[in-house]
Amino acid sequence: xxxxxxxxxxxxxxxxxxxxxxxxxxxxxxxxxxxxxxxxxxxxxxxxxxxxxxxxxxxxxxxxxxxxxxxxxxxxxxxxxxxxxxxxxxxxxxxxxxxxxxxxxxxxxxxxxxxxxxxxxxxxxxxxxxxxxxxxxxxxxxxxxxxxxxxxxxxxxxxxxxxxxxxxxxxxxxxxxxxxxxxxxxxxxxxxxxxxxxxxxxxxxxxxxxxxxxxxxxxxxxxxxxxxxxxxxxxxxxxxxxxxxxxxxxxxxxxxxxxxxxxxxxxxxxxxxxxxxxxxxxxxxxxxxxxxx
Length: 293
Known about the structure:
By secondary structure, the protein is of the alpha/beta class. It has one domain: Aldolase class I (TIM Barrel). Helix content is about 45%, strand content about 15%. It has 13 helices and 8 strands. An 8-stranded parallel barrel has the order 1-2-3-4-5-6-7-8, surrounded by 5 helices. It is globular.
């Protein structure tokens, strides 16, 4: 079953602003080589909000083709429109994605009943395994434990949740109400070990974009009961994790990858390049971790 370090992969753009297929294929291979356990495309870190529908499909297709079943591919299929999320999930299932990550609808702020109906509609019509994504700071809505548990019990293909609410209490509540098959994933690199300690099985990670092996090692060590090693790596990566969020994600991590020579430093407006002082801090931090010279 799905576990480990799952990179929330960036979407590289070329100088003209188009999806850079060559760089995307390189990143997929690089992550597999560096022990990333699964790859998520078209998530928040992948700038899904500014991808056209065709680009969204293209990125999913490229990732599936390049991975060649070596690691699972998770397709971001979220939308604030249930019909649009359903369409993306159907496409991902048909093309061979292993899982769909479906974010809580943003902006329109549905009730808990509306959230239940949203996820239930998708789960009933598409048999791809679904991971709920809860990130209230981005969406303006929090899916409550009771709703998560109802969906898990009522929908065989809803397998777990990526939790980025920051509330360990909320996550603990979920874990008291589900069985051992439920998959809890950290959606916050800074809380990976604490979430693993309450039954989490992995992280869907931003920092794994630049330190994949170390992120993998945190989860692997913890799941193998080497808690001291997991704690040591988690604390070692603290400064790097913090600098990944000094500006809106994915601005710092894409800038870091550009400094490392992996992609070009291109964003889709309204995201843009880093402020000078923040970029200087990012540079110093990357040097500290020997990611650049």
